[in-house]
Request: fold
Amino acid sequence: MTGGAAWVRRLAVLVYLALGAMAVAALGAGVMALVAVGDLPRVPSPLSRIIETPPTEIFAATGERIMLLGGREAVPLGRVATSFIQAVVATEDHRFWVHHGIDKLRTVKALWITLTRPGRVEGASTITQQLAKNLFFTFERSWLRKFREMLIALQIEAAYDKGTILEAYVNQIPFGARAYGIEQAARIYFNRAAMDLTLAQSALLAGLPKSPTYYNPHRHLERARERQRIVLDRMVAVGYISREQAKAAAEAPLELARGEARTGSGSYFIDWVIKDLEQQYGPEVVYHGGLRVTTTLDPQMQRLAVESVRRSLERIDETMGAPREEASSEPVQAALVAVESRTGAVKAMVGGRDYHESEYNRAVQNQRQPGSGFKPFVYATALERLKIHPATVVVDRPVRIPIQGAADWTPRNFERGHQGPMILKQALMRSVNTISAQLVARTGPAAVVETARRCGIDSPLTPVYSVALGTSGVSPLEMASAFATLASGGVRHAPFGIRRVEDAHGQIIAEHIAGGEQAIAPQVSYQLIDMLKAVVDQGTARVVREMGFTLPAAGKTGTTNDYQDAWFTGFTPTLSVCTWIGYDRDRPLHDKRGVGLTGGRAAAPLWAEFMLRATEGDPYRDFSVPDGIRFDTVDPVTGRPLPAGAGGIPVALPATGSFAAGDETVPQTPEGRLE
Amino acid sequence: MAWYHPRNLGEYLWRLSAPHVILSILLVLCLFLGELRFDWAERIMGAYLASTNAGRPESGQIWEVGQQARSAYQALEKIVTDRLASQREARESTAFVQLAERLQPGQGAMLSVDHFRRLYLDLPETSAREVANPLRLLEILSQHRCDRVYVSKNSTGSGLTVNLLDTANQILESLDLPLQVLSLNREQEALHGGRLEQWPDFQGGIYPADLFFQELGSLSEEVREAVVLQPRRLLEIEGTIVRVAISNEVAGGYIRLGFEAMVAGTPKVLLTRGREWAVWQIHSRLEDRAGNGAAAVPGYGERS
Reply:
């Protein structure tokens, strides 16, 4: 054979081999198709059926919609900004308008890269393939899954026009932050409709579906902006925009709807509501039932709560000298809950510094020691069981309480020293630990626990003497609710966030009926209110008055050992609000000079800041005085009545019986003091 | 001619230029380029799949969501249907006792204020007084503070709880209607044929009527009224009351009493109830008399 013939022979062999390979590939594809077609899912018809599941809508008490859950908020393509459509096509599949479901060249290229570069997997899914994957398949990576996805894409392309396909795609892609579809995303991230998106906003949103968590602009703005630049570059490359337009868009401010849109300020509250809904109806009904849920949230109050928490934390960061970098690694956190006293409706809830940084709801899930904030329950128990009253004389002195089978309990005062005799009101106002210890020693810790339970503390409480000093963990929601019991004359209203639940057709599924039960006698409740008013007016929470809050208010501060938690729970006749400041992990709160931050210094100012704005314009309204209460002025040390202007302090007392020191009904020492 | 291997280049080229080879290559090329240009393979496959779509299973994420949605709708439909049913039952009820029978334990229904007013007025006066202070109700209802009334059967099924609600669904007044009380009221509606021995709880507590009324007369008016809460019902009995029985069971602060009378020659029993504290007083007096041998407890017809 000649050299030329050998060469032609080799060429022919190669040609035949190539043709053979193509035939085998075609045959293989055919076999795969036969295998895959066997259990290929049915494509819904019409395609818009995929977005027909109505979402569960959550409304604020004002009727403002604050959240869409599940379902899709579909908009026709004509109501989506052209810039977004261009951005998404340029980024995801620039040959979308010309291919027929599969971009063959891109697929071959991706296949080549995947096979020749170990560890690198190149994607080549078209928009239609992505739609098919999102509709029918899991994220499991397998050749067969990929092939099925391709077949479905072919079917979709054969059955629907490009507009319908693109419309279905943009209405169901996940953008993170519970946003599915462009309309939801536009509202959540920019608080505007999809048709009003600017080029910069469109480019940012079009970059999110690649990895909604990684590029979440609320958490990682720089990453999101970097991705936005890539999208803009793609738009330039495809010819949708000019280089100048891209530059201008990349530099344009984004103005994310942070803390104002649906998943913003109300998110801790919404999470709490959703959990409640799931417990009542199950996740299936909540996410697929198209419920209409009316909550108790007051959007205006919620905005004020978020703003107050933000400003207070800035102040605390400043006081503590915590640079922002350090603060971001483990920042000081805060929680605030506002409960309507006469119903138990939760009007505002902030569960942390920033929902987008941490979704852990410290207002509900955090069970932290309340410290002295728990003392009102000790005093309530003492008033009920020991037949004492706010003018009863007690002695601040070293206390040693024997405990069976353990070392004696020797509680100490916050300020270490002892102040001797004083009336009960003065003791609560100054938050004297030894007196709370004496009271719990007399009533027994189980009685105190029982009182706290009646008032609304549901967390596990250990019936030990130290419970009097708040050593059992409670949540800010429980504290706000339990203090609301005092504010409403001893009537306990369980806190609630859902006022009414309807189905998609407006039929009522459930509605909250705000019933209360008398947890403690109105007279006992009022005596406590009177004592707690003194805490705000002259005691450990006087910063509230110093900050200019003038409406009648009562409350109690709390600070735990080593300044790990700072609390203030206070209330007006209408609103009970609990504020907490602390680290997630046990770390003390110290200022720049190393001085610890107390409830009065850290949490009460947050309370005051919120209440100053939340009650702005409210009329002056004092706590109503129940029958069986009288007022007198007494000596703060001896408890004896004094004429007006003689330096005594006003005290609310039971109308019947003597109240001065030496009263025979009061268990006292021979000196006329409670021991 | 048998096939042989081409021997030189010319032979190779000759064979390659054979029409069937060229046609084959052109065909393959056409197919290949046609696919690149017109996507015919995708179109054919897509069309085929579209034509077989109806026979394929409803599987995959979107269908699962659809199934979950369907099951959610069913669950909601059941809740709504149950709720509407209890509302309908409530609307059609003409007495609290009827409402209590129709509601399941834990179930409730919303009533209009007027409907509640009708049901309340349907109660015997003593029961009405007992379940709610009429003056308090008058205060609430006359000031139009009450918007709706929510009636629920408690989880043990032992009674109804009636909540008078304002427009904000806040409870203005909560009333407890023990089923025992409502049932007794119903029992009072008719005379039962038979004798007191039919009720096991009367065993050991049956006294001659004259002795009962004698002792009743010796008690204070307050106690008498608490023992016989509805004297008018007793007066309405056509016939003579011959025996009286006191139940050995207490329910909701009340004790059941039975009055046996001869009506047209047939024994009939009227069931009523008295307040526990008052019935105990007359019971102890009757027992004292029984201890002294004064209170015989003969069966009907054995009376001397």
Q: What stands out?
A: Chain A touches chain B through 61 residues (CB under 8 Å). Confidence is low (pLDDT under 50) at residues 259-265, 659-675 of chain A. Chain A has 22 helices and 20 strands.
